[in-house]
């Protein structure tokens, strides 16, 4: 049975997506304009009692990246899911981890080497996304410790992510119809108490990011992307809503709030080869009062391009935080309107970097793009490339199919797993599909109503089991399907 796809209303000029993209600072080249954006695979090892045995890429994770790396014309750049720089400060168990004392040898290093090798076997650039959650760490994984943040502002009751319903009945309601605004089931996540980071903490964070980048470079990775979006530590320093410091790293001055990011970039550049790619994911908008605005995002991008010693090859624009995930709904009915969601912000930010021909820091946009027409619109808006996440979980070779003209659009999943539903729900499907790929299977067809009905039943049972063991530190990852 063939896939049901979105409809691309304008595919004229699709050859532009196949054009190479040169990075100024590293001198590296993407073979096309399509980036496999980061997604939470949760396929690394996890042991709540052992840092040594946690965060190591498994054979399933390596197989997933082998599939993304297949094909002469597949993804120009492949960005991994979160790689935590601290065992004590993880975003999600099952993420890969590179601690500050991780040696450039041994099982962890060899696993990362194998992942890099298979991902780049056909010319894709493999880039590791490095992250520190800051205040956005679940309390149970902090185990009573205070976590660091720019300011001691706790992420509280407003933060919820509709992956784990509050009750089995909520689970069934969630899976039978798209949730109306502001009624999605609350997650059971509570977050650790933060304290204001000291200068010593900040120095440790900078050194940890730099060590992780050097580790990945030694393992054969082509570059790294700093996660400076979605409410994590770097984003917390950038945002005036979470950074109330009065020292050189905070206050009303954006220059002060961006200082941590710039110092991390410079520290990485000092530790790696000049040909190593360094990028950053930023919020184009935070969807909350007092948060980072598109104008500030534009000013930040301009500074990243001009900052001596940092050398950011690219900026990926996304948006939102865990506090605002409910607001990130695709309210408009048409695919074109949904695809334009972040493009409106990209159009405001792109001029800060100059024209595509003259800029040194390249610009990518990620979020909701599903058709060739939408991708071309991103290039027309001033972006240099586009990032795609969930389409890569359904079809690992999607980029190659687009570049070679076999498809014009991504598979359109059955509601509530399509673009029209709450943001969190489709991510569950993508996570299970990635798990299938890692197991050597073909991902199930998200556009097949019968298969999706089976998936919904399995998901409902998993939700029940997850809610029943919500306090477990061992629980991680998704289920087999």
UniProtKB/TrEMBL annotation:
Residues 28-308 form the NADH:flavin oxidoreductase/NADH oxidase N-terminal domain. Coiled coil: none annotated. Keywords: Flavoprotein, FMN, Oxidoreductase. Pfam families: Oxidored_FMN. The keyword Hydrolase does not apply. The keyword Nucleotide-binding does not apply. It comes from the Eukaryota. GO terms for molecular function: FMN binding; oxidoreductase activity. PANTHER family: BINDING OXIDOREDUCTASE, PUTATIVE (AFU_ORTHOLOGUE AFUA_2G08260)-RELATED (PTHR43656), NADH:FLAVIN OXIDOREDUCTASE_NADH OXIDASE N-TERMINAL DOMAIN-CONTAINING PROTEIN (PTHR43656:SF5). Belongs to the NADH:flavin oxidoreductase/NADH oxidase family. This is NADH-dependent flavin oxidoreductase nadA. It comes from Lasiodiplodia theobromae. The lineage of its organism: Eukaryota, Fungi, Dikarya, Ascomycota, Pezizomycotina.
């Amino acid at each position: 049975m063939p896939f049901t796809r979105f409809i691309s209303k304008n595919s004229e000029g699709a050859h532009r997506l196949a054009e190479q993209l040169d990075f100024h600072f590293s001198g590296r080249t993407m073979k096309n304009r399509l980036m496999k954006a980061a997604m939470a695979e949760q396929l690394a090892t996890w042991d709540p009692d052992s840092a040594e045995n946690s965060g190591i890429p498994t054979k399933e994770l390596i197989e997933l990246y082998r599939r993304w790396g297949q094909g002469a014309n597949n993804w120009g750049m492949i960005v991994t899911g979160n790689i935590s720089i601290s065992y004590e400060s993880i975003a999600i168990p099952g993420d890969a981890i590179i601690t500050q004392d991780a040696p450039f040898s041994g099982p962890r290093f060899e696993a990362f080497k194998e992942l890099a090798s298979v991902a780049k076997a056909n010319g894709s650039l493999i880039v590791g996304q490095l992250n520190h959650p800051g205040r956005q760490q679940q309390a149970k994984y902090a185990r009573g410790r205070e976590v660091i943040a720019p300011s001691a502002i706790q992420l509280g009751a407003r933060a919820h992510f509709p992956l784990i319903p509050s009750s089995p009945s909520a689970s069934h309601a969630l899976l039978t119809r798209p949730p109306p605004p502001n009624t999605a089931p609350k997650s059971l996540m509570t977050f650790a108490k933060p304290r204001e980071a000291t200068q010593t903490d900040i120095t440790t964070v900078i050194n940890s990011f730099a060590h992780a980048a050097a580790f990945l470079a030694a393992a054969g990775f082509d570059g790294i992307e700093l996660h400076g979006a979605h409410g994590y530590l770097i984003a917390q320093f950038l945002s005036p809503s979470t950074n109330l410091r009065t020292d050189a790293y905070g206050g009303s001055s954006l220059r002060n709030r961006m200082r941590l990011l710039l110092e991390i970039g410079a520290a990485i550049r000092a530790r790696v080869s000049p040909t190593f790619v360094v990028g950053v994911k930023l919020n184009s908008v935070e969807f909350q009062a007092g948060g980072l605005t598109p104008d500030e995002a534009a000013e930040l991008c301009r500074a990243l391009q001009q900052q001596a010693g940092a050398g950011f090859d690219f900026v990926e624009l996304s948006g939102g935080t865990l506090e605002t995930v409910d607001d990130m709904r695709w309210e408009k009915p048409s695919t074109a309107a949904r695809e334009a969601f972040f493009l409106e912000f990209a159009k405001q930010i792109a001029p800060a970097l100059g024209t595509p021909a003259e800029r040194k820091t390249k610009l990518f946009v990620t979020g909701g793009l599903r058709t060739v027409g939408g991708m071309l619109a991103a290039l027309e808006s001033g972006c240099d490339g586009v990032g795609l996440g969930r389409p890569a979980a359904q079809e690992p070779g999607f980029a190659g199919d687009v570049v070679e003209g076999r498809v014009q659009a991504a598979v359109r999943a059955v509601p509530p797993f399509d673009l029209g539903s709450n943001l969190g729900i489709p991510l569950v499907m993508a996570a299970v599909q990635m798990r299938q790929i890692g197991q050597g299977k073909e991902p199930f067809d998200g556009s097949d109503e019968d298969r999706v009905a089976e998936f919904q039943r399995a998901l409902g049972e998993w939700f029940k089991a997850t809610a029943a063991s919500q306090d477990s530190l061992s629980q991680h990852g998704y289920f087999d399907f």
